[in-house]
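Follow-up to my earlier ticket, as requested here are the two runs.
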Amino acid sequence: MQPSIVGSTSFGILWTKTYLPKERWYARPLVYTPPGQKQLVFTASNQNWIRTVDAVTGAPINARQVQPPFLQSDLGCPDMPDFIGIVGTPVIDPNTDTAYFFAKGYQNNAASGGVAKGTYK
């Protein structure tokens, strides 16, 4: 970034959002502009929520829970508290406007089930 941009009065936080109480974002947000459309911010959380918001205003555009997240208590590993859902940063294919990611949950979209019933979508 150029110092003249960073030092200008137009540079800074445009908006903030609050979501679910124990929702965390290990995956980095992606900024994407589909051809002929407005710029979006795409987020994916540890609770398997994917969301798109307007990059300028922060207005919600879409939101969806892919599947219930995997419970950290089923692993007993304290590295990631509470839920293990989408933890890797997604990739967007600009040729198809498709986002690709892994979401950890349980078979048949169950809300729990132990390690043996864990699955990735």
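Run two:
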Amino acid sequence: MGEAGGKGTTLSEVPHECAKTFTMLENNPEVMNELAHSIGVTKELSFYDVYSLYDSDMLAMVPRPVFALLTTIPMTEAWKQERDTEDADLEWYQGAGSAEPAIWFRQTIIHGCGLIGLLHCVSNGVPSELIVPGSELANFLKKAVPLGMDERARLLNKTESMYQASEAVAHKGDTEALKPGEDSIHHFVALVKGLDGNLWELEGSRKGPLNRGSLEENEDALSERALELGIRRLVDIQRMAGGDLPFSCIALAPSV
């Protein structure tokens, strides 16, 4: 079971009124690389397709070390039941400040899950130390990190430059973007190796960051242990329910 950790300044279960509706992003390297580099992620890092979670030859195609995985997963009944059971035992996250083991953003923006997933990947672990100084992302995180859960969500909601950056790449994927008012069954989930050595599952619609377990120094976010603690665990939940789990997955790693 995951652990939502930290103490802080805010606690609210009341949904926030959303000022904007984003265009939902496609989870592919072309889209996410353009967005990431435009807001201030160093060009020393890039996203790459992960074509298999089990085939060693396909996994070997991804540059290493992998700092984070960004996945999209459909909300199946089996996964929903597992989430509801886990969340029932957790308090809403109260962390804030630079001492947090994982920087997490609660999602209050309609269809903002792609941007939030990307922020989770680049605001934690090694990538957080490679953000371009003075960039939009650096300035945004300087304001966001000291804030509690609710204030962070409000800050992201009202930061027009983040909205514009996301919208600029929203129609560059291979699939047609959702129309206003349409819902998606897919959730963006980031699996990040934190600077504390733990694998963090980060999703804006949960109650906080989820610590999935410790990784050794030589184990990255695409290592066997990380896969078992993270995305393969979700695949197994669906398989035990008698079905497959269609998903997409990209990895954040050194540029080649």
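The only thing I checked on run two: Confidence is low (pLDDT under 50) at residues 5-12. Let me know what else you need.
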